Amino acid sequence: MNIVLLEPEIPYNAGAVGRTCLAAGCALHLIRPLGFDTSERAVKRAGLDYWKDADVRYYDDYADFIEKNKLNKQNDPRMYFATTKALKSYAEVDYEPDCFIIFGKESAGLPEELLVANRDSCVRIPMLGKTRSLNLSVSVGIILYEALRQNNFEGLNEKGRLHRLSW
Q1: How many CB atoms lie within 10 A of CB 21?
Q2: CA distance 80 to 86
Q3: Which helix (H) or strand (E) holds 56?
Q4: Among residues 37, 21, 154, which one has the least CA distance to residue 100?
Q5: Which of 44-58 are b and which e, b meaning 16 or more Cβ less than 10 Å from the residue's Cβ?
Q6: Cβ-proximal residues to 83 (8 Å cutoff; 6+ apart), any chain
Q7: Helical (H) or strand (E) element with 89
Q8: Of all helices (H) and strands (E), which one includes residue 27?
Q9: Dmax of the chain from CA atoms?
Q10: Region class of 25: left (phi > 0), else alpha (psi between -120 and 50), else beta
Q11: At what angle do helices 136-150 and 11-24 cross, to 10 degrees?
Q12: CB under 8 Å to 81, separation ≥6 — which residues?
């Protein structure tokens, strides 16, 4: 699975998403411009000591991301666009193990041109109408873990272990 952040602005969110991706065995794709320097203490602190171990890939812009991942510019069946404006819920689609779930920047979301061009691949997290949006890292976690669940948590089946005692 792949999580894509298009022009993320807040280092704490990117750090938290990086840690989630590491825990889930996913790649994190960051598309510039970024609203922060990835060497900032804030990103490292949000990702704790995991940031250096995360599979983070950087792109100059959206076109660079599409080209380097050999995706179709529009309607690639492996791309899903998370937006509060989507007509269907994130649980109404079937996620492929190699899919790309794309999230927009915190202040504006994804560009509407991108949404219109990919209408059938847009997904939303249901919420009350007065709520503008959820935190980016929370949204990533919700949708990513539904996609992983649909794929039987492939590679993530290690059972929980206690620190001092055993089950």
Answers
A1: 23
A2: 11
A3: strand 55-59
A4: 21
A5: bebbeebbeebebee
A6: 104, 109, 110, 115, 122, 123, 124
A7: strand 88-89
A8: strand 27-31
A9: 54
A10: left
A11: 20
A12: 102, 110, 114, 115, 118, 121, 122, 123
In tens digits, the chain (167 residues) has pLDDT values of 999 999 999 988 998 999 999 999 999 999 999 998 777 666 666 656 777 889 999 999 999 999 999 998 767 889 999 999 999 999 999 999 999 999 999 999 999 999 999 999 999 999 998 888 999 999 999 999 999 999 999 888 777 788 899 88
As a whole number of Å, the end-to-end CA separation of the chain is 31
CA-CA distance, 167 to 107, in Å (whole number)? 45
Q: How far apart (Å, rounded) are the C-alpha atoms in residues 24 and 84?
A: 24
Tokens read off for 13: 């969110």
Domain 2-150 coded CATH 3.40.50.11030: no
